[in-house]
Specification:
The protein is an all-alpha fold and 250 residues long. The chain has eight helices and two strands. The relative contact order is 0.11.
Length: 250
């Protein structure tokens, strides 16, 4: 009975740090500090990626930690990016003549709802799905697409009022991809102790260097490419399957 009430400190500290970053991102977005808000969401991704690994390495996994992580993710990767892109661009839909008045807040709400659904489905499917893939776009990746777009726009002084359509499409794409049945490569099969060739190590170092040189456009491009690779991968598999069926029919 005592074990069921145990709360492990170390992994939950990382989860709390991720939650704090999401909370800070909300405050920054409200105050109009869009760059700071976007960066905070990316920092939240780092902490979110550490808590589960720390729990497994220290053998401190728990049902409490899983639920706490999902609740924190809903704030950091659901509410925070939705509010961020709403404050930066989507709210202009209410005053634009060519858009429905409620398009902005409805888009932000749908995104937040899809994040909650994605997290709930993930919790239900834990242990019963192939670890090599995610079913649906992971919520941190969806948040990175939305926050990355705002980060790029804020850095290069784009006018959010002129980008309502692009913001809407990007947000809806990220939201629907999360609740889709599209498979995304999970990178969980990659092990840090795996051996890499010298050329791959050099390539990885170059990618890291480029990210540090131009973090906002490079990170946005990388996560957008990841978000698109799932549908493209699925289409390629359907195409190959049909080609195989046609070959057998002959």
């Amino acid at each position: 009975m005592r074990g069921s009430k145990t709360i492990y400190i170390l992994p939950n500290l990382f989860t709390t740090a991720s939650l704090f970053c999401g909370f800070y991102a909300i405050l920054a977005a409200i105050n109009g500090s869009f760059t700071d808000a976007a960066i905070a969401i990316f920092v939240a991704m780092i902490f979110d990626g550490c808590d589960g690994r720390v729990a497994r390495l220290t053998h401190t996994e728990s049902a409490f930690g899983i639920q706490y992580d999902s609740l924190a993710d809903l704030i950091s990767f659901g509410a925070a990016p939705a509010l961020l892109i709403y404050r930066w661009s989507l709210h202009y839909a209410a005053s634009a003549p060519l858009y429905p008045d409620k398009l902005g807040w409805l888009t932000a709400f749908i995104y937040t709802t899809c994040t909650a659904l994605r997290l709930a489905r993930f919790n239900v499917q834990v242990g019963s799905t192939d670890k090599a893939v995610f079913i649906g776009l992971p919520s941190p990746s969806a948040a990175a697409i939305v926050a990355g777009f705002v980060w790029v726009g804020s850095k290069y002084h784009w006018d959010g009022s002129n980008l309502v359509l692009i913001s809407t499409i990007l947000t809806w794409f990220s939201a629907l991809a999360m609740v889709s049945n599209i498979a995304y490569y999970s990178f969980k099969t990659f092990k840090p102790q795996s051996k890499l060739s010298l050329s791959k190590v050099v390539a990885l170092a170059c990618v890291i260097g480029i990210i540090f040189l131009k973090p906002s456009p490079i990170l946005f491009a990388l996560f957008l490419a990841y978000g698109l690779h799932g549908p493209i991968w699925s289409l390629l598999r359907v195409y190959k399957r049909r080609q195989g069926q046609q070959g057998q029919g002959r």
